[in-house]
Amino acid sequence: MDAFAALLTGFQVALTPLNLGVAFAGVALGTAIGALPGIGPINAVALLLPLCFALKLPPETALILLAGLYYGSGYGGRISSILLNIPGDPGLVMTTLDGYPLAKSGRGAAALAISGIGSFVGGTSAVILMTFLAVPLARLALSFGPADYVALMVLSFALLGTMSEGKAVKTWIAVALGLLLAMVGIDGGTGVERFTFGSLELLGGIDFTSLTIGLFAVAEILVLAEGMISGVVSRTGSGARLSFKEILYCVPAMLRATGLGFFLGVLPGTGASVASAMAYTAEKRISDKGTFGKGDMRGLAAPETADNAAQTGSMVPMLALGIPGSGTTAVMLGAFMMYSITPGPLLFTQRPEVAWGLIASMYIGNLMLLVLNLPLVGLFARLLLVPAWILYPGILALSYAGVYAVSNSAFELIITTGIGILAYGLRKVGIPLIPLMLAFVLARLLEDNFRRALSLSDGGYEILFSTPTSIVLWLLAIVAIGLPFIRKPALHPAVPAAESGKAGA
Predict the structure, then answer these.
(1) Which of 61, 232, 242, 460 is the most exposed place for a label (fewest CB within 10 A)?
(2) Mean of pLDDT values over 347-376
(3) What is the DSSP letter of 218?
């Protein structure tokens, strides 16, 4: 089945009334949640994940809803970034540099419009690239043996350290914690209890929903409650509207940012924050004539385009290899696991309705977002006026309701609270949470392939370096581990201090 025929099958799934309605609900709800300061895509997906499962939605429908939330919250985050100068997540820090000056000068509506168009261009172009690259990548992965997968996992962890903005050691600590938490419960290979401390409730391991809600929702609420984010909302403004000439003026910046964002998004662990920072830095070097940082449309279009291209690109390794490309896709990978679906090379042949239905829905979702956001952005912006004392307790109550709906266990609420407090402490000491989540999700795949490889070699570790693919991946991992200590300035483009303040997200 070629890509066009498969995509047509996907549209037959995505265009059913239920999935169309779910896609619309996902992008609208995602935009609304993303517009709230501090609530980024990963929190939006984490909040809705347990409810999707509790409602017993079909897997393809649930994933379409979560994907809509994912890129919808990315759209919504630009509203608080531009009008409030508070980015919803680290990937939107660059949006504030030229977006907020435009809003202050009365061109808030034009800034929101060009960021929406840039997001549409980046997101849609990246979906087109994903349509034609995912299957070849999956076919390549079919030739991988257990040793190759082990090396690939190690490379994924190494890339997390490379892109951690000077926190390589703390990133590896987070990876170790994630692997440790994944070991809790009964060992699937030997039946031995691991780190259960005699608790019957822990025999089944730490539930993915409890971990996700604790890490991101509970910890985020604690951080927000501590700071109680506030600011001055700029109006969308009565200045000049976005002209067609200005859109054309930004097209080269959007195209450059699309390629860069998609490439960085495909790399496991890099995420949208790195993509938007590098896209802004590159565009500034190419086009800046003293206008960047003062309200230049290209300085807004480039990071917005790269951010959405990276978000979509991060889904390619998740679908084709079973390796999440970002923290949010790690949560979505958990959704696959909750439905007993294994993402990876066989997903496109064994569950084409899920893989291609999800991809097709992203074409529709991006178009929905553009149509929805351009005329209704003022309505979404009013969400910024909701008082924090109403908003945060409501989110917390929704989070716990979701955990209980999935597990029907009060013990899971205690576990969620404990993980939330732990995550809050980790953020305080600067240990990032996304590597922890990625390690937790990948731990089972790493352990299964490690056992399988050793079984094939009767316990000989030399099998881990026995194929050309594994050798190349191990060498890349060694380079990735060493690079942060060799070329730190070149790897980490200059970004404002605000980005480093979004610890752990």
Answers:
(1) 232
(2) 86
(3) I
* Distance between CA atoms of residues 439 and 183, nearest Å: 11
What pLDDT is recorded for position 236?
57
Find the Cα–Cα–Cα–Cα dihedral 88, 93, 97, 98, rounded to 10°: -60
Which tokens sit at 467?
């194929």
Q: What is the mean pLDDT of residues 289-298?
A: 84
pLDDT 10s digits, 307-347: 888 888 888 888 888 877 777 788 888 788 778 888 877 88
What pLDDT score was predicted for residue 56? 81
In angstroms, the CA 305 to CA 328 distance is 18
The pLDDT of residue 349 is above 60? yes
Closest to 161 (Cα-Cα) out of 434, 419, 498: 434
Amino acid identity of residue 391, one-letter, is L
Weakest mean pLDDT among 245-249, 401-405, 466-470: 401-405
Collapsing DSSP states into helix, strand and coil, what is residue 185?
A: strand
Q: Of 102, 82, 101, which Cα lies nearest the Cα of 92?
A: 82
Q: Where are the beta strands (DSSP E) in 320-405?
A: none
3-state secondary structure of 16: coil
Q: Are 46 and 69 within 8 A, CB to CB?
A: no
Considering Cα of 57, then 58, then 61, then 66, what sign does the dihedral take? positive
Write the DSSP symbol of residue 214. I
Terminal Cα distance for the chain, rounded: 39
- Angle subtended at Cα 133 by Cα 505 and Cα 251, rounded to the nearest 5 degrees: 70
| DSSP annotation of 216 | I
Q: Show Cβ contacts of residue 61 under 8 Å, excluding neighbours closer than 6 positions.
A: 18, 19, 22
309 within 8 A of 126, measured Cβ to Cβ? yes
HEC-encoded secondary structure of 355-392: HHHHHHHHHHHHHHHHHHHHHHHHHHHHHHHCCHHHHH
Is-contact 109 294, C-beta < 8 A?
no
Q: Give the max Cα distance, the chain.
A: 73
User: What pLDDT does residue 422 have?
Assistant: 92
